[in-house]
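haha ok so turns out i had the wrong file open the whole time. this is the CORRECT one, sorry everyone. sequence first:
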Amino acid sequence: MKSVSVLRFKIPPYLKQGDTIGITSPASYMLVEDIQPSINVMESWGFKVEIWKSVGQKDFTLGGTDTERAADFQTMFYDPDIKAIMCTRRGYGVVRMIEQLSFRKFKRHPKWIIGFSDITMLHTHINSRFAIATLHSKMCNSFPSEWTKATPIKIETILSIRQTLSGEPVKYSALASPGNRFGKVEGVLIGGNLSLIETAAGTSFDLNTDSKILFLEDTQEQLYSIDRMLWNLKRTGKLDRLKGLIVGGFKAKVETSGNEFGKTVYDLVNEKELKYPVCFDFPVGHQVNNYPLKCGAQHILTVDQNGGSLVSI
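then structure:
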């Protein structure tokens, strides 16, 4: 069987007016009333929205038991009327139930899986095992409760979800950074949360990075933990054969006085002696300027003195 690194990725059908987006909670729980703002906005885009059983369920911090969350997701896989699956929020839980999922019908009839953070586990599994594109994106909990009071950048990132799901061309830019490494490359974009990518290493959910453009982000990790995880990627070969690297938001924990690690994220990446374009401070991650990225789609990454740009082609 061919490695997915040389297979052409399958792009799920883009959404059109009247298509249905299903909402589920495969990780942490979220109340039905808290997702209403996202429903209002997506319906204003001309999509139908269906709330599934796991939304409103609660098993301590999780959106129901592992079995309940898996069953909810599985039913959405099988429902031909659901054209995209949006997760309610990040947190924790996908790693506990992903092995209960069957992707047999999903492989034949793929649909967009939407989310980030803990949802990275679904992205890595679907991208590497089945060569199907997914959408690394904000979720229901990121939609503003009052649209008229939302900041321009929050509105822009939310509207870009509709643009991406509808198949409209998108281009994202990053300001110039002192750590950037210049160059222009074309390749399939993959990535997500660094902690989850490291967690998947050596498992059936491992990410295949060969000849890809990799993007990484994380939050609330100590700088030494970020360094450890990057060395793991380096030593397992995941940084060796990349086309390019995109470094998104990294909100490291505040270090206590006298116990500083003494390095920045720029240092931690660049001391790995990478030989391809590297773009820092890209608008993706646990931050307001978190734009949707199509994992598995072909992109052009350009890094020069003006900053970085990423174009889906």
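The first strand starts at residue 20 and ends at 24.
again sry for the mixup
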